[in-house]
Design brief:
about 375 residues, mainly alpha, two-stranded parallel ribbon, 16 helices
Amino acid sequence: MTSINHNPYAHLGSAYARAGSPQSSSANTLLNQADSSGSFQGNEATNLTLSEAARARLSDASGQPDFATLTGNMREALDKSYAAAKVTGPIGADGKTTVDLSSFDRRSLFAVATNNGGKFSPDEQKAASIELSNRFNDALAPAAATSKLTGNFSSVYNAALDYLDGASGEEKATAVWSALHTAVTKGLQATRQDPTKAPASIANDPVAAYLASNADGSTSTPQDISSVAKRVRASLDAQAKAAAASGKELVFDSGRKTGQQADLSGIDNRSLAAVSLNQDGLFSNQESFAAKQTLDARNRASILAALNRSQSTGDPSQLSLGILNTYSAMSAEERQASNWTPEFRDHALANYKSSSHIIAMLRGQ
């Protein structure tokens, strides 16, 4: 079997895996020690153990299954995935993953990657690590691309902080999460002093490690758009079949008083763009229009969030920065469907630079 990386936080991204590199003499010790607050043991079958205090911190997670239940559910889900794919494990003889873990939530993957309850094999830990690595990299990629445009590294640290803050209570209960959160917070503070320089020499800094290998924010090659369209076509067909079983018609017009409204909330933006563009003619006009409306609504929400951040921080450049981050996160198909052109990006960039210049003047910089 393939052995898992001894670094207990390798599952949280390639940058996290490198957070234990010799930036400081204590980094490797920190990442491999165990303590009563829920740290990890640095061995092949890493287990997560929470203290009573840590468990108490999780007591307000209403609506969420306890970690033991979630772990058992994940064990069953993986076994069903193997049976459906007619494989015996998550990694084949060629070293490639045999099942898709992208549909599992972060908390469940964390349970696998840390071998909670001793229920998961080294290969399963490795596969979960790979998936979480991709998610961390994907979370930072748009901001890294934006920083290349603006020369401002604060957005990358903000993205990393948002990712860390989105962790489950179990993850936050670990000493490793605390160390990484401290490092990213220090990095963010440093960029507020000088956003044009990427902070250096911060122990356990996952952003510095990420930028060392992914300065342009590039990610893996996405699935071709025709395959995306076929996948979402199957998803909508499944909804239509379920509606028909209840004697209803699946409808896409929110104004319709009859029928069952299609649920597009779980469809990602690139898939919505595939429906909206309808390049292969797989979708009706109603489906394409509904997808376009949903995509536009999400873009408006993103802009509104940037506006709110601009107002709450008193920094008008945050609006343009938020728009640039949204643009950087879009696929080519999403930009086409939303009509977010390079000219639109350049206009936002010009506004960002103007606002930043004015703020610098007011601060006497």
